[in-house]
Amino acid sequence: MELTVAQLAERLGAKLSGNGSGVVNRVWPIDGAGSSDVTFATDQKFAARLAACRAGAAIVNKLIDAAGCPAPQLIVGDVNTALIEALNIFAPPLKPGALGVDSTAKVAPDARIGKDTSIGPMAVVESGAEVGDKSIIGGGCKIGQNSKIGKNTRIDCNVVIYHNCSIGNNVIIQANTTIGSTGFGYRLINGAHRLIPHNGGVIIEDFVEIGANCCVDRAKFGNTIIGAGTKIDNLVQIAHNCVVGKCCLIAGQAGMGGSTTLGDGVVLAGQSGVIDNIQLGTAVMIGAKSTVLQNVPAGKKMFGTPAIESNLALKIAALSKKLPELFDRVRKLDKRVNQIESAKDNKN
After folding, report:
1. Which residues of 284-296 are buried (b: 16+ CB within 10 A; e: fewer)?
2. Are 157 and 139 in contact (CB under 8 A)?
3. 163 part of the active site
4. How confident is the model at residue 69, as a pLDDT?
5. Is the link from the previous residue into 306 a cis peptide, with omega within 30 of 0?
6. Which helix (H) or strand (E) holds 63?
7. What Rg, from alpha-carbon coordinates, does the chain have?
8. pLDDT, tens digit (0-9, with 9 covering 90-100), for 194-230
């Protein structure tokens, strides 16, 4: 898509400063942007780089001083909000999947398929399953027995949703993710590990987004629950009977042990882990590569392994850099003390 700068300003609800007749067709970072690109500056540090920018237009905040920018400016209240809209406007056009059931798909006679749905090639929808209106089931997906998919939900290629799972409305699940697999629970009986049956399900509430190659295990009893509005990155493991609150953010390679509970608005950074039966309060933030071994009250920021309050963890990290120097000083002091003690002994 191509738009004049003036047209883009109108679409973004931005105030235009400069000539709006130029044509732009994509969003690009400041350093590589050309005359047909629209760029952006989220703060004053980036705004300072606009002076050398060759972009066709720049999205800036009304509080940013971008006086040195040669490009027309699209002045908005929030750059990130406008950037999301601009990226959607200039997204590459893709042909939508055909409505209806592909001839190679297999849909059980008693499965319920809503209006204006798309069931892709080689997909399987088993007995008792439901797919809501305007939902998309990608090629190679499997929807297990008695599982329910809500309205306007997109299940990308090769996703597996086991039996007795419930997926809400306006959900996105990206390729190769598995929902409802058996949890990792065993008991040592007579010298052998025996799998504990997992007879529960999974509930994924409305407006949840789950990345590629994630696993959400089914519960032993009851349900593993992902709260409304939660966003999950790629390669995330959520174990059996976990309860994730609303509007949480879980970054790539994070993992949660069984029966862990996250309050609303919790953030798990990349490669962080939470052991089983832990409770994290509302708006808790866990830093990258941290491991949580105990309950965390609401609002705390934690970091490290084991995770402790981030301010203390950063102090410890800073002091650890001085350990070689401190060790040398202690060794020299120890040597000096031994010399003094030896001198005293000789006098005696």
Report:
1. bbbbebbbbeeeb
2. yes
3. no
4. 87
5. yes
6. none
7. 28
8. 999 999 999 999 999 999 999 999 999 999 999 999 9
Summary mean pLDDT of the chain:
94
pTM of the model: 0.89
Cα separations (Å) of 41 from 45, 48, 65, 284?
8, 9, 10, 29
Query: Which pLDDT score is estimated for 277?
Result: 97
In a 13 Å sphere around the CA of 337, the CA atoms on its Cβ side amount to: 6
The residue whose two tokens read 């509970």 is 261
Q: Give Cβ neighbours of residue 239 (< 8 Å, ≥ 6 apart).
A: 183, 184, 217, 224, 255, 256, 257, 258, 259, 260, 276
Burial of 63 (0-12, 13-18, 19+ CB in 10 A): exposed
DSSP, residue by residue, 220-286: SSSEEEE-TT-EE-SS-EE-TT-EE-TT-EE-TT-EE-TT-EE-TT-EE-TT-EE-TT-EE-TT-EE
H or E, element range at 70: none
Reduce the DSSP state of residue 211 to 3 states and report it: coil
How many residues are listed for the chain in this entry?
Answer: 348
With beta carbons less than 8 A apart as the criterion, state whether 132 and 119 touch: no
Q: Are strands 142-143 and 124-125 parallel, antiparallel or unpaired?
A: parallel
Nearest-angstrom CA–CA distance, 268 and 248 = 8
User: Which distant-in-sequence residues (6+ apart) come within 8 Å of 248 by Cβ?
Assistant: 227, 230, 231, 262, 264, 265, 266, 267, 268
Which listed residue (163, 193, 198, 240) is catalytic? Answer: 240
Domains of the chain: residue spans and CATH: 3-89 (3.40.1390.10), 100-311 (2.160.10.10)
